[in-house]
């Protein structure tokens, strides 16, 4: 399989909308940590508040709109703040976060900053502040909610990007289930068939979090989604169409000791996979 190197480009962008307020993108690589953030709202009504102190980012927003890789292993942001600061005649965006290595459970601090431009027409104060919905108010069956909370993050820039493989022909639900049952837990993610193990684990973790937020998936006490990312990642990249993939996913999840119950039928799960 041919591989082409992908050049990493650190970047930060702040956008302003007169109706909805601020949002930002951020991509940084430092000390073997890659953080990519896309379209997360900034809780400020103008530049004075942006520069007035660290602004805490919404937990659900960073859960679904941020990706972290720690030494090419999947991670996640536990909490984060941002602040706009003056920087040699310009501005920089300062990100301070607590990040977790999802494979080891280790949590450690991370901070970095990148130069950023302020959009024209941004008020000093009095502009609209982004409206963040409470977790209990989110309707995960609403397509608009999924479009708002789930974004397509760029490909992982820390590894070589592989050309797309041909989609494997599917032989029906039985064939997919047979194939999944024939491989071991350690081999569920084949790095020759997916772009990158960390990227696959990150995608699987976000999908599992979505199921939990929708109350479609319940884990046993003291169990974590990190126990499931290998298997779920393999199924998401199996090349199957949505319904066979949904059947395989539900069958596999219900066999796992970490899963207490699954509260979504195969057709609904297939619809969710189609939107993912």
If you had to describe this structure to a student in words, what would you say it looks like?
This protein has 276 residues and is α+β, with helices and mostly antiparallel strands. 27% of the residues lie in helices and 30% in strands. It has two domains: 3-137, no CATH class; 172-275, no CATH class. The chain has helices at residues 47-50, 59-65, 143-149, 173-181, 197-213, 229-236, 242-254, 266-275, and strands spanning 3-4, 11-17, 21-30, 33-42, 55-56, 66-70, 73-87, 90-101, 107-116, 161-162, 217-219, 259-262. Helix 4 (173-181) crosses helix 7. It is elongated and about 60 Å long. It starts with a strand and ends with a helix.
Features:
8-stranded antiparallel beta sheet, elongated, alpha+beta, disordered N terminus, 8 helices, two-stranded antiparallel ribbon, 27% helix, 2 domains, 276 residues
User: Helix/strand/pairing class, anyone?
Assistant: alpha+beta
Number of helices: 8
Unreliably modeled segments? 1-6, 157-175, 182-195
Mean pLDDT: 77
What oligomeric state do the depicted chains represent? single chain
Shape: elongated
Strand content: 25-35%
The count of β-strands is 12
Order of helices and strands: EEEEHEHEEEEHEHHEHHEH
Q: How many strands, which pairing sense, and closed or not: the largest β-sheet?
A: 8 strands, antiparallel
Distance, first to last CA: 27 Å
CA radius of gyration: 20 Å
Structurally, the number of domains stands at: 2
Helix content: 25-40%
């Amino acid at each position: 399989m041919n591989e082409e190197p992908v050049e990493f480009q650190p970047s930060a962008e702040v956008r302003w909308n007169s109706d909805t307020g601020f949002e930002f993108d951020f991509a940084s690589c430092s000390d073997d940590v890659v953080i990519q953030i896309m379209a997360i709202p900034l809780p400020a009504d103008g530049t004075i508040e942006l520069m007035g102190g660290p602004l805490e980012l919404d937990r659900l927003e960073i859960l679904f709109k941020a990706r972290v890789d720690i030494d090419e292993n999947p991670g996640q942001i536990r909490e984060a703040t941002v602040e706009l600061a003056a920087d040699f005649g310009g501005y920089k965006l300062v990100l301070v976060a607590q990040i977790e290595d999802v494979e080891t459970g280790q949590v450690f601090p991370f901070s970095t900053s990148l130069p950023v431009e302020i959009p024209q027409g941004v008020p000093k104060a009095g502009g609209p502040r982004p409206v963040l919905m409470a977790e209990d108010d989110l309707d995960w069956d609403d397509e608009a909610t999924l479009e708002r909370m789930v974004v397509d993050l760029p490909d992982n820039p820390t590894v070589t990007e592989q050309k797309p493989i041909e989609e494997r022909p599917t032989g029906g639900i039985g064939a997919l289930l047979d194939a999944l049952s024939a491989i071991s837990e350690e081999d569920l993610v084949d790095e020759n068939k997916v772009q990158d193990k960390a990227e696959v684990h990150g995608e699987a973790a976000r999908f599992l979090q979505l199921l939990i937020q929708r109350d479609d998936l319940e884990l046993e006490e003291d169990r974590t989604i990190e126990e499931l990312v290998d298997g779920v990642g393999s199924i998401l990249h199996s090349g199957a169409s949505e319904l066979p993939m949904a059947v395989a996913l539900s069958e596999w999840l219900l066999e796992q000791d970490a899963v207490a119950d699954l509260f979504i039928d195969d057709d609904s799960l297939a619809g969710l996979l189609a939107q993912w």
